[in-house]
Design a protein that fits this description.
Blueprint lengths: L1 H18 L14 H5 L7 H6 L1 H10 L9 H4 L4 H4 L9 H12 L3
Helix pairs in contact: 4-7
Length: 107
C-alpha cells in the first residue's frame, strides 16, 4: 500500500497545478442551509475530512494510515475523488462508495 500511495502522491502532486488553470467560480449568492454546509462527502478535501473525528475514523477504516502517510501534505488538499485515479486502484469505486455511505451517516 505504501508503494501505491507513493505513486499516487507523485502523480497527484502535478494535478493541483493543472487544476489551477482557471480561476475558481464565485460562491452562489444564495445562502446554503447548515446541513449542506456541514455535509462531508468524497468531494470534500481530505484535510477537512481528517479535521472531523468521525470522518477521520471513516478514512482510517477504509484507507488505513492515510493521515500518517509521508506525503500527506502533498495530497491533503485534494478530495478522495481527485486522488482516486492516481491510487493504483487503492481508492477504487467500491471504496469510494463505502466511504460515501459512511460519511452520509455523520451528522
Amino acid at each position: 500500500m505504501k508503494l501505491a500511495l507513493a505513486s499516487l502522491l507523485l502523480a497527484a502532486s502535478a494535478a493541483p497545478a493543472l487544476a489551477q488553470t482557471t480561476p475558481p467560480a464565485a460562491a452562489p449568492a444564495t445562502a446554503a442551509t447548515p446541513a449542506a454546509e456541514a455535509a462531508l462527502t468524497i468531494d470534500t478535501p481530505i484535510e477537512q475530512l481528517e479535521a472531523n473525528p468521525q470522518a477521520a475514523a471513516v478514512l482510517e477504516k477504509h484507507l488505513p494510515g492515510i493521515a500518517k502517510h509521508e506525503a500527506y501534505d502533498t495530497f491533503k488538499s485534494m478530495s478522495l475523488k481527485q486522488v482516486a485515479p492516481y491510487s493504483d486502484g487503492k481508492v477504487s469505486d467500491e471504496v469510494l462508495k463505502a466511504i460515501a455511505a459512511d460519511l452520509a451517516t455523520i451528522r
